[in-house]
Amino acid sequence: MQVVSNRVCAAVDSFEPIRQFYFDSRYAERRGAPDICDFTFGNPHEMPLPGLVEAIRYHVVPHNKDWFAYKASEPELQTFLAERLTQELSLPFEPADIALTNGAMAAIAVAFRLLLDVGEEAIFSTPAWFCYEPMLLAADAVPRKVRLQGERYDLDLCAIEEAISSRTRLVIINTPHNPTGRIYSRDQLVALADLLDRASERIGRRIFLLSDEPYRRIRFDGHDFVSPAAVYPWTLISYSYGKVLLAPGQRLGYLALSPLMPSADKQALQSSLFATQMALGWCFPNAVMQYALPDLEGLSIDMHTLSAKRARMTEALEQAGYEVLRPEGTFYLFCRYPGGDGEQYWDALADRDVFVMPGRVMDVPDHFRISLTGSEPMIERSLPAFAEVAHAIQTERQAAE
User: Fold this and answer.
1) Which of 141, 179, 242, 335 could be stapled to 136 by a disulfide with Cβ–Cβ 3.0 to 4.6 Å?
2) What CATH number has the domain spanning 61-296?
3) DSSP 108-141
4) Sign of the CA dihedral running 324, 328, 333, 334
């Protein structure tokens, strides 16, 4: 007799590749060891930003008896964020457009429950962050995956249009994109908006867009960023501070509604946010993180150092024979092994205590992802191993031929 619900069983199956990697793999055996080169997840490998520590330390001290009382989306912080988002995205946000959440995952979960009924469909492009599918399944929704296009991993608008059915309710866009680092241009987003308008008219119901933007402020070479919320009114934005602060364990984020959304639709969503966050298990940030938010808003991972890491690893990996897609944003490198079996390469790197995110967990087994949050000494230790593995496997292949 089945004990666990069908929705959770489906989510468990979808999560299995990343669960196995984190808990039951060779990486799991060595995770946390001080001498490994760990480029798997976007975790910090150096001490945190001083401003982050100072803000949390200051705000953990209670100022009154209600300091640690229940906190929903506090109005003064909604006002603060509306002003900052208006400046950053050049859109006229109002306080009621913003729901504070305990990270972007909570914001995404809230968006799914706000918009999707049982059996309705959500489209997203792959390779993708490995949590969209299980989170949709846990919400009793149906994931519809389409591939990104070409060597640059552009949005495949034709594939998205073909995937839209009468059950489609949501399209998910991740920009800057994990794992490729692509930032989608205004022209691409306008074309997507036109497509969604036509499709909504065709199926007789509005298709919403979720713009997942946790890496929005991590951009290289002065690259511009345009939020889909600026070109498609029926857009919701999920955002996390865990990336720009490099502190994913301190959960702080928000779900924002595009201020361009028609007022009737926006008011319906606004009036449902609090109940949805409560029903999902109190998806609000804890009190201390809310108090600290204004102090954290201006902090950032060191982009100069991150850019130097990107350049160093890209050059060395390309010289060794790997294909590297130079990211426009995020703190990842998306790489292709120089021919052969991806698992063979991954194991050979693991033999040398170098661990990367295997592409199989993102449905691209001939690729891997490197998190540039690894320390500089870690990077320098790893580069000879990358070169040695590429040379050894290619030599072995040539001998076999």
Assistant:
1) 141
2) 3.40.640.10
3) HHHHHHHH--TT-EEEEEES--TTHHHHHHHTT-
4) negative
Q: Is 26 left (phi over 0), alpha (psi -120 to 50) or beta?
A: alpha
pTM: 0.97
Residue listed under structure tokens 């909570």: 106
Q: How far apart are CA 123 and CA 195, in angstroms?
A: 13
Would you call 44 exposed, middle or buried from its count of C-beta atoms within 10 A (0-12, 13-18, 19+)? middle
| CA-CA-CA-CA torsion sign (349, 354, 358, 359) | negative
Indicate if 61-296 has the same CATH topology as 6-49+301-400.
no
Q: How far apart are CA 165 and CA 231, in angstroms?
A: 23
Q: Are 244 and 299 in contact (CB under 8 A)?
A: yes
Give the model confidence (pLDDT) of 250-304 as tens digits.
999 999 999 999 999 999 999 999 999 999 999 999 999 999 999 999 999 999 9
- Kindly tell me the sign of the dihedral angle through the C-alpha atoms of 325, 326, 331, 333: positive
> Quick count: other Cβ atoms within 10 Å of Cβ 224?
9
HSE value, Cβ hemisphere, 13 Å, CA-based, for 179: 31
How do residues 191-226 score in pLDDT, each as one tens digit? 999 999 999 999 999 999 999 999 999 999 999 999
Nearest Cα to Cα of residue 174 among 284, 329, 44, 336: 329
Among 360, 357, 302, 304, which Cα is nearest to 332's? Answer: 357
- Alpha helix stretches (DSSP H) within 140-286: 157-163, 186-203, 263-279
- C-beta separation of 254 from 94 below 8 A: no
Q: Angle, to 10 degrees, between the axis of helix 376-400 and the axis of helix 342-351? A: 130
Tokens 């991150």 map to which residue?
306
Q: Are 22 and 16 in contact (CB under 8 A)?
A: no
CATH assignment, 6-49+301-400? 3.90.1150.10
